[in-house]
Amino acid sequence: MAQEDLLVHRARDNDRRGGRVTRSQHCCGRLWVCGRSVLCDAPGGTFSSAQLGCQSCHDPHGQVRRLSDGTYGRGATLGTATAPIIGSGSYNNSADPAAGQAVGAYRLLRGLNDTSVPGVTFTGVAIAVAPSTYNQSEANTQVRVSYGASGTNTWGNWCASCHPNMHSTGGNYVHPG
Known about the structure:
Elements: E1 5-9, E2 18-22, E3 30-33, E4 36-39, H1 54-57, E5 65-67, E6 72-73, E7 102-104, E8 128-129, E9 146-147, H2 155-159
């Protein structure tokens, strides 16, 4: 990708396409993607859309893991032992890890104080499980992802990593429509 290009991930109004945006399309404090105006910063936050890419949310190295006791941990630092990931933890038929083992976090999402994205600290873990048959037609059967929570590991806290002001209204969580 050319340096002047920005990759913007869009998932609104059933628009599942990513779009390439050149700086010439970046004007007036807004970004133009697929002919639509997009905010330059995360709604309810200051995370720059110019930094947004797949790696903003997903860890290509998959360091967050669910351990055999049900807690979550991160990969170890070089030279330190950690529970190896034996498989995906994203599906309803994912194997439960045995003692000393782990499974990956949902969709390799960042978490547990990951600070590798400039200006963002992912404090919690995004907990979810998808059916193993997620890649199917929904003509007869809807695909349902089970979103979970445990303590501070909630989707709201995970999303607040980039959208903190959506959680600053005295417990009245807001979400754009």
